[in-house]
Structure formats: C-alpha cells, structure tokens
Specification:
With 381 residues, the protein is of the alpha/beta class. The protein has 12 helices and 14 strands. Helices cover 38% and strands 19% of the residues. Helix 1 links the parallel strand 1 and strand 2 (26-31).
Length: 381
C-alpha cells in the first residue's frame, strides 16, 4: 500500500515508519519537529540525541535498502498538506501528528492554545485532504484511553448500547477527559464521527494506553534508529520515567495514593496494532474504534516492578509518594474491554522482568545524560 505517516519523527511515528517500510509498503512521512522544538524550549531533552528525520531515513535505507519519502512542514498549512496528499495519493493515512503531552497542555494559556490549534486544525485538514485528494483512503487515527477517564462502569470498546424509556440506540461511549490534551482527542473523535456520517469516510480510531519501551525488530543492533526516549514530566510516559529515575537514584515519583490504573502496552505492540488496522481496514462510512492496550497496572504496581528489577542491578531504588499535582482519582474502578485487536490477531508482549531488564540496561548506557531537574516540576491542574 501507499502509506502516509503524519508525525513520522515521533516516539511512535518513527518505529511505525520502519516497521511498515520493512513490510514493503510504500511509505511517506511528514513532520514539523514540533516535539523536538518544545523539548528544547522547556529544557526537556530526550535521554540521548536522535538524528534528524532526513538522517534517520538515510540510515534506514542503508540498513534495509528501503526508501522513504520525507516531507518537513506544518500540517496546519493547507498549501503544504495539499501538496503532500496530491503527491503521495495514499491508500492509508496514519495520523500521529499531534502535541502529545497532557502536562504540557496544562502548563499555561499559551501551551493550551498551541495544543488546541495544532491538534484540531491538523485533524480537520487531514479530513479535508482525504476528501479532496484521496477519497478512498483509510484514516488510522491515534486516540487515547484517556478520552474515557475513569468511569465507575466497564469501559466498552468505543461504543455503548443505551436503553432509555423503552427505546434503544448505540452511541459513542461517554468521554470525560482529564486534561486539555485528552479533551482535544475527544474532539478528534467527534470530528471524525461527524465526517464519517457526512462523507462516508473510512476511519479506525485507536484508543491507546501509555506505551513503554525502546526496542523493535527494526532497530535491533542500531541505536541510531531508536525512537525518542523522554523521561521528563512533560513527555515521558510513566514506566519510561521510572526506569530512568531508578538508574539516576531519583526516588520514583508516585502521585498521591498511587492507585491510578491504566492500560499499558509495549512499543512493539503499538506497531502490531497499527499494522493489523492497516491490513484490515474499516468499511466506508464506518468509525471503528479499538481499545489499544495489553495489561492494566496501577502506578504502585509499576513502581514495585521497577524497584524489584533495580535490585537485580544493585540499584538503591526508593519509592516516594508526592502530593498529587493533578486533579484525578487516585483510587478507582477500571475495567476496559479490549477484544477487537486480539480478534484481528494481536500477539501481545507482556511486561516481564526480562523486558524491564533490557530497558534498564539501555538506560544505564546513557546514565550520564540524565538531567534530574526535568524529572519532576509539579505542573498542576
């Protein structure tokens, strides 16, 4: 297929690019380096430097023999996105191109405005570009399990059947986001659902949980092909942060009671899920929603796992409960359904001691790069 990956420089975008290229798809990628620029502005650089997108593509081509078309530009610019779509004529559009940090979206009015403008305008432009230049393309959009919040009932897979006063109908499962970033994801889903109904688009919306890890089949033996590995409060996912904190001798930052429970998945399973969605596309006029995670853990459970692995490496890993800077439930019911991707053939990677050990061994190589001042800043909302 001709695959267009938006946000191809990111933590998920770059591994997806290599994975689909390795499967002989004709891949084109787009990025405007928004995440890189924000990290520089906020002094929240990743654990190790990552080559720019042009250099990554060259390194990948030297290793694999596969060519990737690269576009650098802002997808909020209609002239730019029009050129990209008209030149690539994609069969599938994978949309990662958003400001992905909940804490950053809550940092200030300016960061909130950037998040709203970027995320919603890019999604709208993608919809309009598909309609005009690639009307048969399948849109795969990265959503988030954070759209659902933590309701006191089971979380269904995107949709819920409601009976009310003797009548029944199927609706989008109620959303109750916990940050402005997650709210933009809710708005994305609403935008897509509107245009699916209006224009009969084909859309898969992936409600993904937090991702952890570095290693994929494509980057084995070549660390220049690793994705970004952020460990700061703004862009680091919780397990990646905890691994770095353990190596640095920085107490693991558990917010409040630590009972916050979410669905997690290995980076390799993100690649599986996207590939399965691509190879088994939604139907015209369908908004298909998958809950994309493998296992659920509380923050306390993750901290205990990291502490145990740290003991293997003779690290003195301490766990410290901090006053929660976020407005969120610290103890709650959490039972999300996630059968759709398993039915398509997902073969999960589980969070084993070996997986944690491999992550810790890699982080130890870059121990001297850790900037402890960016680990916790207490961004409040």
């Amino acid at each position: 297929m001709k695959v267009l990956i938006l946000g191809g420089d990111g933590y998920l975008g770059w591994p997806t690019t290599m994975n689909l290229s390795a499967c002989d798809h004709e891949v084109s990628i787009v990025d405007n380096y928004l995440r890189r620029n924000i990290c520089r502005e906020e002094d929240s650089e990743a654990l190790f430097p990552v080559p720019n997108l042009h250099d990554r593509v060259k390194i990948w081509q030297e290793q694999s023999g596969k060519k990737i078309n690269t576009y650098i530009g802002d997808l909020c610019n209609w002239d730019f996105i029009s050129r990209v779509f008209s030149e690539t004529q994609p069969d599938t559009v994978i949309h990662y191109a958003e400001q992905p940090s909940a804490p950053y979206s809550m940092l200030s009015r300016e960061t909130a405005t950037l998040t709203l403008k970027n995320n919603l305008e890019v999604t709208a432009n993608v919809i309009f570009a598909v309609k005009e230049f690639a009307p048969n393309a399948h849109i795969i959009k990265l959503g988030t399990m954070g759209e659902y919040g933590t309701p006191d009932i089971d979380i269904e897979e995107g949709w819920i059947d409601i009976s009310h006063k003797g009548r029944s109908q199927k609706f989008l499962y109620p959303r109750q986001a916990g940050s402005l970033y997650h709210t933009t994801k809710v708005m994305d889903t609403d935008l897509l659902w509107f245009y699916v109904r209006m224009w009969d688009l084909k859309v898969t919306d992936l409600m993904q949980g937090p991702v952890y890890g570095l290693h994929t089949d494509e980057n084995q033996g070549n660390e220049e092909l690793f994705p970004f590995f952020n460990y700061d409060e703004l862009f680091g996912t919780v397990l990646n942060r905890f691994i770095v904190q353990a190596v640095a001798g920085y107490p693991l930052t558990v917010y409040g009671k630590g009972g916050q429970t979410r669905g997690y998945l290995d980076l390799r399973d993100t690649l599986q899920c996207v590939k399965l969605s691509l190879e088994n596309p939604a139907q015209r006029g369908e908004l298909r929603i998958f809950n994309q995670f493998v296992e659920t853990f509380s923050v306390n459970q993750l901290a205990d796992k990291v502490q145990k692995i740290g003991n293997r490496f003779n690290l003195d890993v301490q766990i410290k409960s901090l006053p929660n800077p976020r407005k969120e439930a610290e103890e709650h019911y959490y039972n999300p359904i996630h059968t759709g991707l398993l039915d398509l053939g997902l073969k999960p990677h589980y969070l084993t001691e070996d997986v944690l050990s491999e992550m810790m061994e890699t982080v130890l190589k870059y121990k001297d790069n850790i900037n402890e001042s960016c680990i916790f800043r207490g961004i409040q909302w």
